[in-house]
Amino acid sequence: MKVFNDKQVWFVTGSQHLYGPEVLQQVAKDSGAIVNGLNSAESISVPIVEKGIVKTPDEILGVCRAANNDPDCLGLVLWMHTFSPAKMWIAGLSELNKPFLHLHTQFNAALPWDTIDMDFMNLNQSAHGDREFGFIGTRLGLDRKVVVGHWEDPEVHHQIDNWCRAAVGKQAGRDLKVARFGDNMRQVAVTEGNKVSAQIAFGYEVNAYGLGELSEAVNSVSDADVSRLLDEYASTYVMDPKLLHDSDLLKIMQKEARLEAGMEAFLTSVGAKAFTNTFENLTGIDSLPGLATQRLMSKGYGYGGEGDWKTSAMTHIMKTMAQGLSGGTSFMEDYTYNFGGRGQILGAHMLEVCPSIAAAKPRLEIHTHTIGVRCEVPRLLFSGQAGPAVAVSVIDLGNRFRMLVSKVNTVEPPADLPKLPVAHALWEPEPNIQTAAAAWIHAGGAHHTVYTQAVTLDTLGDYADILGMEMVVIDENTNIRQFKTELKANSMYYRLASGI
User: Fold this and answer.
1) Which of 31, 40, 226, 417 could form a disulfide with 13 if both were Cys (CB 3.0 to 4.6 A apart)?
2) Rounded to an integer, what distance in angstroms lies between the CA atom of residue 196 and that of residue 200?
3) Is residue 278 over pLDDT 70?
4) Of 214, 359, 243, 351, the residue nearest 291 (C-alpha)
């Protein structure tokens, strides 16, 4: 069973009637074998569904319209087994509103040197047909993924899956509702944005709900549900037994469990899979949820602190993309620097870092929260798993959204942090902290990010291409002078592309 078994990617093969029925029968047979092979590849997370051979403009238009109208179809893989005159594709591609991947392959891997003849050449001419098809995609100005290589190559499977996950991310955005409890943190710029523009670009709705509505849901949680969650905490995390036996500590734990159950019930009732809150507006719930938010994120909900709905939405979208992959994904904040040695960034937040990124079993502790309201809040403490990761920031530039991606290498902290009462991750950005931080600031990147060790840079690039969104990357090759030139060129391109 595939990871995203409730969705499909359609496989469509282009040809024409010129070659006669016997060739078309072989084309159909070969196409079926390729689809079976792709579905057998464990690295491809979405089922591939064969949709036959298209040989005329009407057949092409029909399959494109069918894909548009099928809610389970994430997109199409298109391959030209033979030569498929590309004027046939104009009407279909012009109406297609699903993303497509152009697979530039051929059925056979190696040429049969001793037997090759013109019949073989006419049948196996993807090098010919795919170039014709590639021209019409470029002529129509269509952004698409092009994957080159033999269909049995694991690297081809990997590239196809990157694109499939990007298509999953697009659909997750289209299906998403973000619930805002309270407004954005006062006077903060980068967490603001145009919600209508975001819905047009990404598909998700951003709706506000009163704290009174949330508090009603929290107060409606039964004692039995609270007890069930407390038992789950005890069996899942490292925790001092006194948290559930000391009467004062138990009340704090019960309050947090009630928050978790009430928040999840409310989000379910309004169909939201992402949410925000702010420490400046907690009327009715008295404390900023800590453990509750961390656990909701671990279940796939998106979260953004201080009303940051863009990061909340992107957290859920990237968590959806990452299903079935190793490594976690979390809301994060670039908190403080270590300029000693190579240069490092300590990422954290007041409370809300997802345990999916933890290097070891998290510890559940109660500590005093002092920002906005002073209260005792349970939270999970851990350090992030070492290894490569990316930090992603989506910002609103007024005429477009920009996705900024920074490649980093997460490391183990050189010492314990016994007095830091929050989860955290320590990383070294590529190519170094001086260049990475300067580039981030030049690009207008936010202090909030989505941090992931699961979603690849290639998948994020495919996602940006599918949405027609600007993506800027900070990596081992970044040079500030060239980076600033890239930003200026991007600005000109997107202004011209939007007709401004």
Assistant:
1) 31
2) 6
3) yes
4) 351
Domains of the chain: 8-162 (3.40.50.10940), 176-497 (no CATH)
Res. 163 pLDDT band, cuts 50 70 90: very high
- Residue 280 annotated in ligand binding: no
349 labeled part of a ligand binding site: yes
- What distances in angstroms separate CA 12 from CA 34, 135, 298, one per listed residue? 11, 18, 37
| pLDDT score recorded for residue 500 | 59
User: Nearest Cα to 363, choosing from 380, 375, 384, 347?
Assistant: 380
Task: Tell me the C-alpha distance between 441 and 102, whole Å.
Answer: 36
The pTM of the full predicted model, rounded to 2 decimals, is: 0.96
Q: How far is residue 288's CA from residue 311's CA, in Å, rounded to a whole number?
A: 18
**Bigger pLDDT: 352 or 340?**
352
Gap between the Cα atoms of 428 and 444, Å rounded: 20
448 annotated among ligand-binding-site residues? yes
- Identify the H or E element spanning 49: strand 48-54
* Residue pair 331/315 in contact by the 8 Å Cβ criterion: yes
Token reading at 8: 């499909």
Is residue 249 pLDDT above 90, yes or no? yes
Structure tokens at 32: 């079926």
Q: Are 423 and 381 in contact (CB under 8 A)?
A: yes
Q: Which residues pair with 275 in a beta bridge?
A: 179, 303
